[in-house]
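[Meeting: bench + compute handoff]

Bench side (C.D.) handed over the final construct sequence. Compute side (W.E.) agreed to return the predicted structure before the next meeting so the bench team could plan truncations. Sequence as handed over:
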Amino acid sequence: MAEAHQAVGFQFTVRPDGVDLKLSQEVIKNIYLSGLTAWKKRAIQFKNGVLAGVYPASPSSWLIVVIFMMSSLYTPVDPSLGMIDGVWLPPALQRTQSRAVLSAILFATGLWLFLIYLLRYSLKALLSYHGWIFESHGKMSTSTKVWLSLVKMFSGRRPLLYSFQASLPRLPVPSVDDTIQGYLESVRPLLDKQQYNQMEILAQDFKDSKAARLQRFLILKSWWATNYVSDWWEEYIYLRGRSPIMVNSNFYIMDLLYMTPTHRQAARAGNVVHAMLQYRRKLERGEHAPLRALGTVPMCSTQMERMFNTTRIPGIETDIVQHLTDRKHLVVYHKGRFFQVWLYTGGRHLLPSELETQFQRILNDPSEPQPGELKLAALTAGSRVPWARARIRHFSHGVNKVSLDAIESAAFFLALDDEPQGYDTGTFNSLDSYAKSLLHGKCYDRWFDKSFTLISYPNGKMGINAEHSWADAPIVGHMWEYVLATDCFHLGYTEEGHCKGDVNKGLPHPTRLQWQIPKECQDAIESSYLSAKKIAEDVDFHGRLFTEFGKGLIKKCRTSPDAFIQLALQLAQFRDQGVFCLTYESSMTRMFRDGRTETVRSCTNEAVAFVRAMEDCGTMNSDNAQRLALFRRAADKHQNMYRLAMTGSGIDRHLFCLYIVSKYLDIDSPFLKKVLSEPWKLSTSQTPQQQLNLVDINKFPKYVSGGGGFGPVADDGYGVSYIIVGENLITFHISCKFSCPDTDSSRFGENIHKAMLDIQGLFRPENDRNGAEIQAKAVPMENGNGKKHI
């Protein structure tokens, strides 16, 4: 009852002579501190907004320009060349003695704003140059060095997260000729002569009859919108999809592989949640450093805005993404119960020790789920239309609406699981089980509509399941890198494994969310659960740590690590299936305003020639020298395609947008229909490391993560995610479906492993000296040879 008394803000008694009001000093203090914190937050946001708004200039530069212009009033030299006298002022001000001063200030302000826009558009013009990305690794031309120097000069000092947004160029619309030529080249190795000739006819007919009109509308959109792709991509690829997002869209990210900072579930969750709140505070203030290629070229940060306080809301025809501001609570799920936990007290974040106390209270709570509550979240795992109808019918009023609003308005969602997970070298398939738990869990213990669900296990391991529509994996990965580093190296734990700091037992207990779920709604929940369970049980997953060699040795072979891996995947795919297939590799376009992704079609003519040479399928046997030459040609081709995709010259987003325009204009195009209906039987993605400064991998080799993964894209294909960790580790996440008799994730993992070794073998005797190094790198990680995450 103590907490109940503390929660009472005031008491009053009605008496004949009036009302006796008694206020709680503690509550009044908390209200005061909360208000003070809110005003400080607004002031900081305003200040940082101004700094980002005038970047690359600074507010102090305005004063310099004003003083410089004011000097014309007291010296014979007029730097304005007489233009100050031409500044118009209202008649009432023209008769005052301060007219000259006001005119000088107004002119100086106008000049200052003009200089800001000049600097900004100069930087935008510089950032539109992408020749640097096509230069050989380790070599930089004189022109690129001059360009880099100019970019650094125009970029200003100490930029904030959103400082460069207005200076980023727009994504260009490729020419129809280039796109069609690139498309035909990409399908040439996949089609026989007759099929290819038919595709050429369709492409030529489209080019001659419909393409010009569709392209004109697309160019018009590119002039009007900040990005001609991203809004349509979010709407039509994600939000209009009516199939379940669990497995089919959501992705996951793992915890540290070899290290668990504490085995106390509540303590680990307390530290991680606190680190996330720190990250969110810096994000809201725009205080994170912008991500920059070469340490100079800025990347778009738009996607980061919706990381917290965001939920995908189901609809009958399309979903929407709801983003709120300044949410002060999270919702926790444990053993079928939903709890609301406030994240602030007295105008500050709860400390890690206070969060640990709150989570431990939930873990100790013996109450049972209410009717229909246990599997309620299965609605977010099933098809979107039943969920949308159930939401309208059963959650639009009363106590159900209040509780659902609490979930959808929460900063994020936390699931306290009751079964341990994580990578264990002594347990067979532990990585597979861990990945499946993160990807779909029990189908009712994650709120798949939240921007992300933080998952906590009883052995101290953590992980994330993320909804995909609002952002791509590197955005969540950036946050997770910060959180892991803050958790392990800044917050820390006591010797007993608890969070550091005093325990505040006076906090109000977490609040149970209340539900009144009728039988009809319970039936809908069960139906969604059964359909989601069928999807989850069909996921065949295999995780593989490749430790024989890594990025360090691949670079000594003078090739791109990503191209090396992609060619290994092509070789593994051919060995596994006996045929080549359309291959998707995700590339980012964040060098442009509001950029997201582009597709690299990795199955090229050059890759096919290399794979056939490796398998001796050509007209003559190939020796290693020939294979190596073919490998280098294929790797160079892949790198060039990747660079084209990054610089806005990819083909798939252009074709996608042309198709959307054709649907709006009711123009039938057999060519575009054919292109957009082709299945990606091999879908791949690399998880990048973005903040290498957070953890010194050489000093802390066990503080590495296995990255993350996603479900299979095609019913009869594979999904492969990989992360290149440090110099000596590559982790693969492989998914397919049990229902397909032709795919097997473990078999494909073996094929990848063998393909990696076979390709590296081509560099002997050219690189014989690396043989001993490979053996040294093969030492198991638990013996101390380590690397780093994300």
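W.E. noted at the follow-up: Residues 246 and 665 are 33 Å apart (CA to CA). C.D. will use this when planning the next construct.
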